[in-house]
User: Fold this.
Amino acid sequence: MLRFKTIVFDLDGTLFDSAPGIIHSWHYAFGQIGENPPSDEDLKKFIGPAIDESLEKYSSLTEEQMQRIIPIYRNYYYEEGYRKTLLYPRVRTLLRTLHEQGARILVATGKPERAGRRILEYFHLMSFIDGISGVGPVDAGVDKPMLISRVLKDADPSTAVMIGDYPSDVSAAKDLGMTGIGVTYGFGDQEQLIASGCMLAHSVDELFPLLTDTVPAKKGFFLSVEGLDGCGKTTQSDALERSLREFGFTVRRTREPGGCPISEKIRDLLLDIRNEEMYDITEALLYAASRAQHVHQVIRPAIEDGQIVLCDRFVDSSVAFQGGGRQLGVELIQQINAPAINGYMPSATVYLRLDHETALRRRANASALDRIEKEKAEFHARVEAAYEQLAEQDAGRFIIVDATKNREAIAEEILTRVLERIDALEVG
Ligand code: TMP
Assistant:
């Protein structure tokens, strides 16, 4: 049950930690006009108030320099700087939950509307948002009550709430006959917020019970990344890890074979090119042994703690490489691995699809090859075929991505499709 029909959020300091992007963009803008920027501490105070007021207070720029620097800052922030914004943890889960429960979710921001919209799009949040108002290109002197009433339209203010980090957010709510909630984790003056007597939230988690009585528990998620050697798995996992962290998720990045001290020792044994005489069954058992320790010590605890486990390779690799490549068969590999996995299978698996010939060419350019990578082309052709079969059989779990596309396009596709799974499984 929702406590309010309409929920209006401020952006900076309420949904996003905008400090890194704003500070970075001011550094750039001051550099462009050949002046030193104020300290980062002072630049943080730029978040919220009007830009010219802050420049007057914290810099010694002349009027003419101020006229020059503002558009430089705005354009750079809009094109580049906003990418350094961070979403506060659990914001996605909060918006998704409220949206699913039927709330009308609105945004009222003191930043240019196009910048607000761009950041919401960057974080894939627009599907939860029903309306946004921000400063337009010809809006001189627009204040928070105006921005809020613009986005409220004909909604009944007595069933609406405004959530923001500035005392002016909650006083605007009061003036309009709405409830105000102040968040103390943002950039606004905490003491003034407390003194205003409004409801307070010290974290996004504390917002949940103020807005709804059905609060979802924090839910973990197991995600693996698979593909032939040379498919770009590490690069893409790095990018995905970075994005998920920016999106406020707690990510436990790990890999197989390895991921914890005992399993890393087994990894060394498995990949050592001197171990040429290793028997195929020994190899399959060692991969499973390293997995058993890894699931027990890393994967299971992290999922139970509500984290996202991002694992480079998991049991699908054993099915593809030992089952397919070494021709031990799927069934034997599944039997060997059952006690290792102990029921912990990924909820989603990103498969970077690349044919074995292209993968081989890519590997040939890399430096030292390990014992498995050194295998002949036929081995890798069988691995490819096994992956294809797995992906076809378990189409609901696999996210198949064309690994021949450019790096940025692949990263964006993976992120979009992983977020779809995260939302569908109510992760976060
Ligand atoms: P990596 O280079 O992706 O870290 O993986 C190490 C090698 O181990 C790679 O060639 C794939 C192989 N491998 C298997 O053969 N079976 C497995 O179960 C796993 C996890 C990896």
Residues 221-424 form a domain with the Rossmann fold fold (CATH 3.40.50.300).
